[in-house]
Amino acid sequence: MAVTMREVALKAGVSSATVSYVLNGRSDTMRIAVETRERILDAVRELGYHPNAIAQSLSHKRTHAIAVVMQYPALFSGWSGFINTLMHGVTDSAVKHGYDLMLHTRNAGLVGECGEGSAIEREVAILSDGRVDGALLLRDRNDLLAAELKKRGLPVVLMFTGSEQDEIPFVDCDNVLGGKIATEYLIELGHRRIVHLAGSVSSTAAYDRRTGYNQIMQKQGAEATVLEIASPLSDFLPLLECFEKPKGQRPTALFAWSDDVAITAIRLLREKGIRVPEDVSVIGFDSTELCNHTAPPLTSVKQPIYAMADHAVTLLTQQIRGEAGEMTLCKMAPEIVVRDSCSPLLERN
């Protein structure tokens, strides 16, 4: 049988309330004598007492747990350099701040599946039922979950996506700038036939990177070609068909919205006898550690994924504690990391 607080109190010769004050760090506030405090702690050690976490959470109205909520729960189980680095940053930061993580993998269904807003309502009910103190959200553009959770009083922080509502904190990368940096780098190498392998238009990050690409191509008077390839599991046939055109019409460079898509594209092109970077230059986005181990090593636009995840957790824990955090609307700058997958355009191209 588990030892109770009452048994500790009897052993120490004090009231259960006094034991509670000592174990919750309020002995100084309640002016409990040092010898009484030591007697209680001796009883705790001798009896092997351990506080009941559930009872404590009910008493303090805190679970010391935060939820990590993706748009699609399958992202937790899928292989991705981006998700790996994100979760590394979130986990380290949660440990640092003394919080457990709950991976929210219960799929409440797609919006509109059972009536307008019903999926969001179900998800709000699940997340605000008291099992977590707050939520980190990685959601699609125009998603309503953050705003609805805010209405329920649950602290939230959007990560790797922005918000137009000042009351919803977010940590994001300047993805429009990132799209510009990638495209400008290829332009500087002499490329004009640059194809953008774009993510879903519902993804804020993918949409903004596409916007940056389009702006630079328009500025240069070059024709923008966008192929939507949302993941490494997407259909790459439209890309491969581009290389069946006459040589003077083929792309000389690719800008992929993610490293995972870029790496898959390189593999499929190699299988068709198309060399990188001799025949086509390729640049990705995220610049995770994997980019150093591809063949060739992948040039990529780096967003500080680990630091962004850490800052998102910090903002959330500050909200939970009722503290005013700094940089609650945070957009970090990307930078290009040059490796070996891009080269200057040769005359023969």
Write down the CATH class of the largest domain: Alpha Beta
- Main sheet summary: 6 strands, parallel
Which stretches are poorly predicted, pLDDT < 50 over at least 5 residues? 110-116
Helix proportion: 25-40%
What is the tally of beta strands? 12
CATH homology group of the largest domain: Response regulator
Strand order of the largest sheet: 2-1-3-4-5-11
What's the shape? elongated
Taken in chain order, the helices and strands follow as HHHHEHEHEHEEHEHEHEHEEHEE
Overall pLDDT level: 89
Give me the CATH fold name of the largest domain. Rossmann fold
Task: Please tell me the CATH architecture of the largest domain by its name.
Answer: 3-Layer(aba) Sandwich
The tally of helices reads 12
Strand content: 15-25%
Q: Which class best fits the helix and strand makeup? A: alpha/beta
The number of domains is 3
Distance between the termini: 78 Å
What's the layout of helices and strands?
Elements lengths: L4 H8 L3 H8 L10 H14 L5 H8 L4 E6 L10 H17 L2 E5 L13 H10 L6 E5 L6 H7 L4 E4 L10 E4 L1 H14 L5 E5 L5 H17 L4 E4 L8 H6 L10 E4 L2 H13 L9 E6 L12 E4 L2 H16 L8 E4 L2 E3 L12
Parallel strand pairs: 1-2, 1-3, 3-4, 4-5, 5-11, 6-7, 6-8, 8-9, 9-10
Antiparallel strand pairs: 10-12
Structure description:
With 349 residues, the protein is α/β, with parallel strands linked by helices. It folds into 3 domains: 5-51, 434 Repressor (Amino-terminal Domain) (Orthogonal Bundle); 65-173 and 305-333, Response regulator (Rossmann fold), CATH 3.40.50.2300; 175-304, Rossmann fold. 40% of the residues lie in helices and 15% in strands. The protein has 12 helices and 12 strands. The chain has helices at residues 5-12, 16-23, 34-47, 53-60, 81-97, 118-127, 145-151, 175-188, 204-220, 237-242, 259-271, 305-320; strands spanning 65-70, 100-104, 134-138, 156-159, 170-173, 194-198, 225-228, 253-256, 281-286, 299-302, 329-332, 335-337. The chain has a 6-stranded parallel β-sheet, sandwiched between helices. Strands 7-6-8-9-10-12 form a 6-stranded mixed β-sheet, sandwiched between helices. Helix 1 (5-12) crosses helix 2, helix 1 packs across helix 3 (34-47) and helix 5 packs parallel to helix 12 (305-320). The longest helix is centred in the first third of the chain and has 17 residues, at 81-97.
